[in-house]
Structure formats: structure tokens, C-alpha cells
Write a structure and sequence with these properties.
- The chain has ten helices and twelve strands.
- With 311 residues, the protein is of the alpha/beta class.
- It has two domains: 84 residues, Arc Repressor Mutant, subunit A, CATH 1.10.10.10; 208 residues, 3-Layer(aba) Sandwich (D-Maltodextrin-Binding Protein, domain 2).
- Strands 3, 4, 5, 6, 7, 8, 9, 10, 11 and 12 form a ten-stranded mixed sheet that branches.
- Strand 8, helix 8 and strand 9 form a beta-alpha-beta unit.
- The N and C termini lie far apart (85 Å).
- Pfam families: HTH_1, LysR_substrate.
- This is LysR family transcriptional regulator.
Length: 311
């Protein structure tokens, strides 16, 4: 079989598309109109293709174009290549325009309590073709999931390292929640005031517990911690039942809890800066950028640091 020297091979997608279109139309003028080309330009493409292949593919008559046996053989492969490339272009355009794709996000459990479901719901309504999954992971696992490629990015309380970069996206503050009976008659709450109550604190080793202990130290408070749950829903349930005052990040406390009062803790205000974490060599895909835009919208209007007190 005769091989075409690479130095002489001028065949590209334009030649294949022109050939396929002429074969389908069986007419140069109509094919040129479909491709938005002049007839001489189209004829030149076919001529270059035949010259490089070294064999006639078409025979021209005054009325129609006939496909030679070699042309019929070549047409099978040409159609497949044209279709494959057109499909590839269509798929990447769908990906870029958020019509299809997949997004995997890891976030701290506190964020998955309230904010992430809201953001995911808005994202799904705007971009129904994107398959999105959100997993809740502890802070010490967040970086590992990001660096190992299990997720596209993470959201949490993590410092920047050689492996990952972080972009601050929201500020979360600690709040106190308890039953209405425990907080009866109050319109504010300071860290000093906590000495009057039995406290519910997240278990040792969590970022929430570290922030809590920082608040106690800064306020000079000796806390009476009676319960140390591992999960935030458990802490909220304990507080709702009147077992004590739970100290939690505002991002993890639902806007309205029946029978529960929430106060922003003051003197001092203890906050944590939450960031988007990704690997240094992994730029955001369009779906990730769209998700983060929605997260910023939620934080701007109903952000964790701006949650209203529950009456």
C-alpha cells in the first residue's frame, strides 16, 4: 500500500469535511453553499485531497458528482473521523457551557448541615446536566481527598501547603444555641455568660473544639462541659432537649429550630475563615466556578457570619 510522506501530507479536517459534504450533496455548488465556501475554494480542497492520496475520489459531470470506488472506500473512514471530531467538539462545548459534566466536592460536616444543601439545590436547578456529589469529611481528611483527586476541590478550614492552594470564601463564627427555657429573658450572650450554663462541646480533636477552647482562653472562662458529641446533629438535639448550651459554628445551625434560641457569642467574637482548597496544578473546571459563584451568593445574602438570631 502506498504511503503518503508526512512532509507532503496536507490533509486536515477541512479536506475531510469538504469531501464528505460533496459526497452527500453529489453537487459542488450545493456543498459549497452548505459549508459557506466559494466553489473554487471547495474544488481546491478536493483537489489537494486527491493529490495527496494519489488517487481520484470523485468524477465530475456537468450535472452531478460521482464517487469512484476509491472514494467510496475512503468515505467510510472520512465520515467516521468527521463525526468523531464533531462529537468531541460538541461534548467539550457542552462541558464548557455547563450542559454536561461531573462535579465532586468535599466539605466540612458543619458546612454540609445547612449551606451545602442550599447551594447544591440552586446549582442543580440551574445546571441540570451536571452530575454533582458532595461528601462531608473531617478537616484532616479534606486535603488528602483533594490531593489524591477524589474530589475537584474542598471547602474547609485548612492552611495552604506546597500541595494545595486555598482561597478564602466565607467567614464562620461560633454561636450558642439552647432551649428557650435556658435562655429566657436574654437578648445577648458573651463568653463570660457561659460560665452559668452546662455546656455541650464537640469532641476533642475537631476544628470546632479548637475554636471553642480558644474562646474560653481569651475570655478567661472555666467551662463546665457535660457532653462531647462527635456529630453536630447530636449536639443540636442535646441543646434542643434542654441538656445544656451547645457552642457550634453558625454555618452548621439551621435558620429556624423550633423551641431553640441562638445567640452570636460576643466578647470576644471567635471566627474561622473557610477556604476553597484545590491542588496547585488543577485549575477550576467551569462547573466548579459556577458552584463557587452560587456559594458566594448564599454567603453574601445569608452568610454564616450574618445569620439572624432566632426569636
Amino acid at each position: 500500500m502506498k504511503r503518503i510522506p508526512m512532509s507532503r501530507n496536507r490533509i486536515d479536517f477541512r479536506h475531510l469535511l469538504a469531501f464528505v459534504e460533496v459526497c452527500e450533496q453529489r453537487h459542488f455548488t450545493r456543498a459549497a453553499q452548505t459549508l459557506a465556501k466559494s466553489q473554487p475554494a471547495l474544488s481546491a480542497l478536493i483537489g489537494q485531497l486527491e493529490e495527496d492520496l494519489g488517487i481520484p475520489l470523485l468524477t465530475r459531470t456537468t450535472r452531478l458528482v460521482e464517487i469512484t470506488p476509491a472514494g467510496k472506500e475512503f468515505l467510510v473512514s472520512a465520515k467516521r473521523i468527521v463525526a468523531d471530531l464533531q462529537n468531541a467538539v460538541s461534548e467539550i462545548q457542552d462541558f464548557a457551557n455547563l450542559r454536561r459534566g461531573r462535579l465532586r466536592v468535599a466539605a466540612l460536616p458543619s458546612l454540609c448541615m445547612v449551606i451545602m444543601p442550599k447551594v447544591a439545590n440552586v446549582f442543580a436547578s440551574r445546571h441540570a446536566g451536571i452530575d454533582i456529589s458532595i461528601i462531608d469529611v473531617p478537616g484532616d481528611q479534606l486535603v488528602e481527598d483533594v490531593t489524591r483527586g477524589r474530589v475537584d476541590f474542598g471547602i474547609g478550614y485548612v492552611s495552604e501547603t506546597e500541595m494545595v492552594v486555598s482561597e478564602p470564601i466565607m467567614v464562620d463564627r461560633l454561636v450558642a444555641i439552647a432551649s428557650k427555657e435556658l435562655f429566657a429573658g436574654r437578648d445577648s450572650l458573651s463568653w463570660r455568660d457561659l460560665e452559668q450554663f452546662k455546656l455541650i462541646a464537640m469532641s476533642q480533636g475537631t476544628t470546632i473544639r479548637s475554636l471553642l477552647e480558644s474562646g474560653f482562653r481569651k475570655a478567661g472562662v472555666q467551662p463546665d462541659i457535660v457532653l462531647e458529641p462527635n456529630l453536630m446533629p447530636t449536639a443540636i438535639a442535646y441543646a434542643s432537649s434542654g441538656l445544656g448550651v451547645a457552642i457550634l459554628p453558625s454555618s452548621g445551625v439551621p435558620d429556624h429550630l423550633e423551641g431553640v434560641v441562638r445567640f452570636d457569642l460576643e466578647d470576644p467574637i471567635i471566627e474561622r475563615k473557610l477556604s476553597v482548597i484545590r491542588t496547585r496544578d488543577n485549575p477550576f473546571v467551569p462547573a466548579a466556578a459556577a458552584f463557587l459563584d452560587i456559594l458566594r451568593e448564599e454567603c453574601g445574602v445569608n452568610g454564616p457570619s450574618q445569620l439572624a438570631k432566632v426569636p
